[in-house]
């Protein structure tokens, strides 16, 4: 059995990257791998791990932008001691800061260090060059991450491996009872089409473009077919917005935007843990983001059988096959979103077929089993 040390500096978060790490660790083959997790703080993620009986150690990891040299040294020393005491074979770091601590702590011990990269946004050139040079392996959650973030580091492409996020498909399926319960909770009638967006309330998620698209659908506009007027008149479309505020005041700003656009068909809900139930009630899932690495919620919506509309950013085109498992549109383009929404509304058979095809693709390519198997195979290669 190999012991794997996982480093995640944000123990108080349960965002996409932390959930992906949690799903990986809780689905490991425990006959082959024993996980030990290090987090920088106590919090939600730590509690989730401990509830599953997974050992978690708290080691404060100050940012390297501070002058807390002694605290940084202590963190590195504690990490090394933890590795020695537990005979760690592999170190798996979640994000750049964790990777830097992992490299500084464990390269002198000749332990393999994996840097798991989930964002397309570039960091400081010399910082990324250092991490790429000294990490044993770099896992990119999408080909877009490798291309967009690391295109300037082609010399290190041989260290990089694309491993798509995986979801537990069994949690996401079309249960008629769950669907009816959610739609009743939010006052959605049988004839109404429920569009859904689930994500943090931050500008990059593109809520405003979806609101503007609904405004176009609710008026006679050159960008939309004439049927848009009939749709609005029959109150056929509702939008469910589920999320949690990460930028102070931005949720209120979004609500003011909806009011100023005169859209009465928008329902706001705070973020909930029963995401699978929410998705079961949604007909069309929209991801209008300006930037993505590889969206978990997009895969989860596909696994539920929702009809999909997503922007052509990051890993989205690797997940959604345009015209087969969903529709892809240009980012920051309300007209394109409105046209795509109307295409699915006005073609219910096509919309349903795309949803079923999306679920099949999620099962075939984005299951947690496939994700875990790929990473376990990588672990075995590193300890040969």
Helix/strand layout:
Elements lengths: L1 E7 L7 H11 L6 E7 L4 H8 L3 E4 L10 H18 L3 E5 L1 H11 L6 E5 L7 H10 L2 E4 L2 H8 L9 E3 L13 H10 L7 E6 L8 H11 L9 H7 L3 E7 L6 H12 L4 E5 L4 H6 L3 E4 L8 H9 L2 E5 L4 H4 L7 E3 L4 H12 L2 H18 L2 H15 L2
Parallel strand pairs: 1-2, 1-4, 2-3, 4-5, 5-6, 6-7, 8-9, 8-11, 9-10, 11-12, 12-13
Describe the structure.
By secondary structure, this protein is α/β, with parallel strands linked by helices. The chain folds into 2 domains: about 1-165 and about 365-380, Rossmann fold, CATH 3.40.50; about 170-365, Rossmann fold, CATH 3.40.50.2000. The protein has helices spanning about 15-25, 45-50, 70-85, 95-105, 125-135, 145-150, 175-185, 205-215, 225-235, 250-260, 275-280, 295-305, 315-320, 335-345, 350-365, 370-380, and strands at about 1-10, 35-40, 55-60, 90-95, 115, 135-140, 160, 195-200, 235-245, 265-270, 285, 305-310, 325-330. Strands 3-2-1-4-5-6-7 form a 7-stranded parallel β-sheet, with helices on both faces. A 6-stranded parallel β-sheet has the order 10-9-8-11-12-13, sandwiched between helices. Helix 12 links the parallel strand 11 and strand 12. Helix 8 (about 205-215) packs across helix 14. The longest helix has 18 residues, at about 70-85. It is elongated, with a radius of gyration of 22 Å.
């Amino acid at each position: 059995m190999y012991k794997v040390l996982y480093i995640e500096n944000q123990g108080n978060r349960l965002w996409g990257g932390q959930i992906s790490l949690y799903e990986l660790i809780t689905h490991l083959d425990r006959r082959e791998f024993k996980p030990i997790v290090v987090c920088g703080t106590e919090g939600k993620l730590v509690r989730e791990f401990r509830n599953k009986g997974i050992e978690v150690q708290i080691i404060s990891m100050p940012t390297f932008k501070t002058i807390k040299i002694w605290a940084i040294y202590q963190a590195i020393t504690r990490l090394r001691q933890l590795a020695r005491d537990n005979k760690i074979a592999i170190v798996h770091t979640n994000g750049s800061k964790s990777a830097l601590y992992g490299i500084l702590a464990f390269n002198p011990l000749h332990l393999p260090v994996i840097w798991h990269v989930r964002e397309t946004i570039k960091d400081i050139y010399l910082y990324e060059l250092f991490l790429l040079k000294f990490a044993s392996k770099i896992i990119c959650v999408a080909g877009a991450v490798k291309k967009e973030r690391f295109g300037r580091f082609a010399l290190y492409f041989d260290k990089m491996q694309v491993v798509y996020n995986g979801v537990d498909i069994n949690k996401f399926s079309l249960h008629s009872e769950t669907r009816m319960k959610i739609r009743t909770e939010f006052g959605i009638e049988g004839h109404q089409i429920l569009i859904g967006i689930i994500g943090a309330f931050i500008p990059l998620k593109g809520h405003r473009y979806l609101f503007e698209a609904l405004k176009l659908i609710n008026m006679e506009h050159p960008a939309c077919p004439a049927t848009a007027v009939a749709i609005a008149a029959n109150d056929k479309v509702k939008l469910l917005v589920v999320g949690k505020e990460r930028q102070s005041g931005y949720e209120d700003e979004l609500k003011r935007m909806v009011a100023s656009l005169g859209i009465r068909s928008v329902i706001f809900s705070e973020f909930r843990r029963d995401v699978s139930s929410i998705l079961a009630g949604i007909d069309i899932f929209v991801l209008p983001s300006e930037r993505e690495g590889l969206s978990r919620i997009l895969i989860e919506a596909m696994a539920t059988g929702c009809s999909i509309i997503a922007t052509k950013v990051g890993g989205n085109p690797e997940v959604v096959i345009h015209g087969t498992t969903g529709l892809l549109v240009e980012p920051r383009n309300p007209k394109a979103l409105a046209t795509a929404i109307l295409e699915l509304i006005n073609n219910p058979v096509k919309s349903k077929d795309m949803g079923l095809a999306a679920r099949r693709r999620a099962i075939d390519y984005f299951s947690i089993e496939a994700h875990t198997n790929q990473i376990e195979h990588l672990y075995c290669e590193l300890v040969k």
